[in-house]
Amino acid sequence: MTTKDTQDNTPVQPSLFPEFVDECKPKEDSRLEEIRENMKKTIEAYESNPEEAIKLLSNVILLDSKNGEAYSKRGRLRFAKGQLKFALNDLNQANELCNDDNTELINQIKQRLKAEEEKEMKKVEKELRKKIENKGQDYEQIRNEYSTQSEEMKLKETAKKNSYNFKINNDINSQAREYFYKAISKKDANDFVGAIEDLNKAIDAFPAFPQAYIYRSTCKELTGNYHIYELDSDIDKAAIARRSLKKLDEDRTELETRFKDNQIKGEELVLIINHLSKDYSVSEVAIACGYFKFNLPSKKEDLDLLILKYSLKALEKIELTPSLEEFEREKNIAFEKYNGAKEYEWTYSIFKNRLCHPDEDHGGTVYIPTRLVNESKDWDYSKANLKDWNIENIVNERFPSEDDLPCFLERANCTKEDAEEYKIGLEKEAQQLMEHYSFNEPMKYMHVNQYWFLNDHLGRSGWFDDEEIAEFHGLRYEDCHAASTWCDG
User: Is the distance from CB of 176 to CB of 202 less than 8 angstroms?
Assistant: First the structure.
């Protein structure tokens, strides 16, 4: 076996088998050493342990994707094991990369694959004929409709689509399906790279497409150019996609429910207006109370993509317009009847166009590096109640100021000496707390509350998630240290 010469007659790196090692200058390179070692082991295992030899050659290809000899030898081993499609792909690669002529073997494999395909086509045609005739339709008439291409191939493709349509979730849009069918055709024609490209497009068109991930993993394996973790990653993504599809219908129903007639009226409306009118605009209060119009995506597929990407947070991506006339009408009716409505003890706020109130029993402490706060250009931390993480601030949270000290002494029935001793104890506790967290850079911190979203009867409908808690308190979630707590109770 010889190596190909480049156009300037400079020889490319020769074979890494021992008998050819003398043709090239040795390089002190760990990667090349690993390739040489694998090729040496391949020779030893070539006849005695073909499966081990295939694994070794695959390792060589991962390290050196241009190694034509490795493709050639792996292709011949796969042919011997009856793995015809794998073998054909390897030998085609080998012919492109080196002068080892595998044309005769490639033609032999193609003939065998064609024979197997014809056998499969006859089986498919027989099954399709049976299905069509069972429906009372004329098989020959339907068969004649496939005149632009090979009739058998058309029938096979139709059978494929029927089969995959049966398995594919109805929520997966037509564009994603079309790319998927194209990928299957290319895979069957041994165009694994082309199949992967179409599967990528199918996933872009509909991210929760389990079959697309599974077939992409298969095609990647057939090329022999991907690491095992990349194959496993697609299988994991397929499992996630199945769960997303299952949740899609639930989220869609929940989202549609939120857009129904869930307006706050009567006494609750009076209470909310009295509580929020000083801090929020009329439009903000109207939308939070359910008085709005919205523009949902015109196509169900577009709404599904929005839900798949953002789940129930898709609501935040839909533009809402306040229905001010309707809001004013209901407001006047409510105030005329319930103007003396009692104040609730809760504190109300508006967050992401929804009413909410704090859960006084749950919250946490958030830590952010001072560096990120000071250097941030795309997040305004000025409204966040952040303090420097130090002993003085920790102690001051529990020890009264100079102005409040007399009242504290009277309420606690203690002397200044007692208060001073208490303060020393707080300083020790603060020191222990600082040592416990042992941050490696200056930090800021603040205490945060958990919050409830509210429904149209001002009942609780769900907690904030951690990112929402951060945003509500003026913090960027990505900046928060892993030691932060959000919902302690």
Answer: yes
pLDDT in tens, 105-132: 888 888 888 888 777 777 777 777 776 6
Do β-strands 387-388 and 443-454 pair in parallel, antiparallel, or remain unpaired?
A: antiparallel
- Compute the CA torsion angle 418, 424, 426, 428 (nearest 10 deg): -150
Task: With CA atoms as reference, report the closest residue to 258 among 465, 455, 451.
Answer: 455
pLDDT tens-digit readout, 355-390:
999 998 999 999 999 999 999 888 999 889 999 999
Which domains are assigned to the chain? Answer: 18-101 (1.25.40.10), 168-258 (1.25.40.10), 263-338 (no CATH), 349-479 (no CATH)
User: Which among 142-146, 262-266, 294-298 has the top mean pLDDT?
Assistant: 262-266
In sequence order, the 6+-apart residues with CB closer than 8 A to the CB of 254 are 312
Segment 20-66, tens digit of pLDDT? 334 444 444 566 777 777 777 766 666 678 788 888 888 888 777 78
Distance CA 227, CA 332 (A): 68
- Amino acid type, 320: L
DSSP reduced 3-state for 160: helix
Q: Which of 100, 31, 103 has the alpha carbon at shortest distance from 70? A: 100
Determine the average pLDDT of the residues in 89-94: 86
Q: Is the dihedral of CA 229, 235, 237, 243 positive or negative?
A: negative
pLDDT at 84: 86
Per-residue burial over 377-402, b if 16 or more Cβ lie within 10 Å, else e, is eeeebeebebbebeeeebbeeebbee
Count of CB atoms within 10 A of residue 474's CB?
16
Q: Can you tell me which residue has the tokens 């001793």?
A: 421
Rounded to 5 degrees, what are φ and ψ at 320?
-115, 135
482 within 8 A of 383, measured Cβ to Cβ: no
Please check the confidence at residue 312 and state whether its pLDDT lies above 60.
no
